[in-house]
Amino acid sequence: MTLFPDMIRQGMNTSILGRAIQSGAIELEIKNIRDYTQNRHLKVDDYPYGGGAGMVMEAEPVYRCYEAVCSEAGCVPRVVYLTPQGTVFRQEMAQEYAEESDVIFLCGHYEGIDERVLEEIVTDYISIGDYVLTGGELPAMVMMDAIARLVPGVLNNEESADTESFSDGLLEYPQYTRPPEILGRRVPEVLLSGHHENIRRWRQEQSLQRTRQRRPDLYQSWRIRSGDGADRQQE
Ligand code: ADE
Question: Whole-angstrom Cα distance, residue 168 to residue 111?
Fold first, then answer.
């Protein structure tokens, strides 16, 4: 649900997600909230009660749009409202949403949406990070991308999701392709060795090292989860 359907259409119809929509692995229905206004001028926003800068999206078109979506879907899906005030989106949440049959993403603009319709319909308040964007469309697309790639049939074997960053809570190891030397740098010898067990060990070590250096927060959580936390706290 958006006031900028073209933005979503263009963003979602390319590359892997475009292919997934074409093949029917996922379905995307874009609703223009403006189509649900009942005034002649198609006005969707108004001045904030109590004064202040900017305009607030009106409750009515948002609610009518929501009712239309539910009636077409034949169910009452979770409604994600994209807002910097929400819970910060994480990989585990992407997995949860990927298991839902339907999810509604509500994109706000201007100074937000009338609180009363949010209270009425929103189930999940989600932020994609601690910064402020101009609207909910990019965050909705970020979420849809992260969720869709976990839906069976969206990625093919080569693109498969399970060895990538975060699938086990660690960052991915570095990748190399031909030539064996460029910019005065050689590919790590072990990758040319054909020794699968050594390659696996090297990659695991790189993942750990990289996560510890770049994302100490993730590294700590991984250690706690893998029972490696208590005895090596001082390391
Ligand atoms: N809308 C504006 N900024 C946002 C953010 N960081 N996350 C989600 N929705 C937003």
Answer: 38
Closest ligand 1 atom to 128 CA = 7
Task: Determine if the pTM surpasses 0.85.
Answer: yes
Q: Whose CA is nearest to atom 10 of ligand 1?
A: 83
Protein residue closest via CA to atom 7 of ligand 1: 127
| Half-sphere exposure in the Cβ direction for 16 (13 Å, CA) | 17
Distance (Å, rounded) from C-alpha 162 to C-alpha 73?
31
Q: How many residues does the chain have?
A: 235
Q: Quick one: which H or E segment has residue 131?
A: none
pLDDT digit string (tens) for 99-114? Answer: 999 999 999 997 899 9
Q: Cβ < 6 Å from ligand 1: which residues?
A: 82-84, 127-129, 131-133, 136, 139
